[in-house]
Amino acid sequence: MAEEPELALEPRGRYCVYLLAKRGLPSGAAARLLARLIGAPAEAAMIAGLKDTEATTLQYACLPCPRDPPVLVTVPGRLWARLLGRASRCPRRGVLRGNRFTIVLEPLGSCRELEEALESLRAARLPAYYGYQRFGTRRPDTHLQGLALLRGDQAAYARELLASPYPDESPAARRCRRSLWRAPGCSGSRLYEARAAGAKGPGWLRHLVPRQVLELQLAALQAYIFNRYLSLRISMGHSLGEKLPGERLLGGRPYAPVPGIGYRLGTGGAARELLEEAIGSIGLSPEDLAKPPPGLPRLRPYWRPVYTTPQGLAAARLPGCRLAVRFSLERGMYATLLLRELAEPPGCV
């Protein structure tokens, strides 16, 4: 996967812009590692978007330039970075035109069947769900942490944050979770979790967890509510191109509301009814979102397209009847939206 950034390079500037390739690393961890390798402050490293930890991704990192920034930086098998130039400022997170994807598929049936299925998606409207990885890859429970925070259920928050090992986590992580991060060798890997394990009680946890982590957990809950809204919308028979009362129409495309944290619902009509149902389906009320427990970050409401369309969809045959599929999606969209349509079982919403 490769980013398509909105970024202007300049002959002079206090920030260095690197083209960063990573594999098996979270985007933030890769940017901080790059900063340490070039001698820049790790906390100042900026990336335009968060990418799948497991994927091989190509993205842009912006960070304060040291005196003599290296042109090439490598960590074999994990990270490769090339200095592109300088900038007077770093772009805000999310300032992207979109992302380009290259995915190799191996058909279960014939190559021809897969090619025909791909052809049918060339101009298809794909439901703009947040992808599975939005909620975590090895540990897809970020939205559950946000839900526990908003409910004020500190015991559930502690359980999801510290314990509850997931099968895709490493043996070391599962061992640390079983010991609530008190076992030897656990304190160095996830410092805030280790500190939280020693807190006086569950109510202290959110004071020990960094604010940006709390924001990530609550943002995942926002995304999960949107997914519930979109599923309800589809199950009720509304087409993706239909604007419901209370939704917005931008560029000829309906946009659905994503509720804020610390804000009242700002829409009405059928959209509000669907949104209230989506919120209620996870045991919350609009009032819970409007008045979160004290000390939690406030997150603004926003609007998200109901659907997206892949651009430049093409496939090339590889040996063994495999296909290299290439396409672009606008920012905030996931490659799994297209893959989901290819593999969707009958009756799936």
Q: Strand-and-helix sequence, N→C?
A: EEHEEEEEHEHHHHHHEEHHEEEEH
The structural class is: alpha+beta
Q: What is the number of independent domains?
A: 4
Shape: globular
* Number of helices, where a helix is a run of at least 4 consecutive DSSP H or I residues: 11
User: How would a textbook summarize the main sheet?
Assistant: 5 strands, antiparallel
- Please give the alpha-carbon distance between the first and last residues: 26 Å
Kindly report the spatial arrangement of strands forming the biggest sheet. Answer: 3-4-2-6-5
Gyration radius from CA atoms, angstroms: 22 Å
Percent of residues in beta strands?
A: 15-25%
Give the beta-strand count.
14
> In terms of per-residue confidence, which ranges show pLDDT below 50 for 5 or more consecutive residues?
none
What is the residue-averaged pLDDT?
Answer: 87
- Helix residue percentage: 25-40%
Pfam family, one: TruD
Domain TRUD: 125-309
GO molecular function: pseudouridine synthase activity; RNA binding
Keywords: Isomerase
In short:
By secondary structure, the chain is α+β, with helices and mostly antiparallel strands. Helices cover 32% and strands 23% of the residues. The chain folds into 4 domains: 2-94, Alpha-Beta Plaits, CATH 3.30.70; 103-124 and 309-343; 150-210, no CATH class; 212-307, no CATH class.
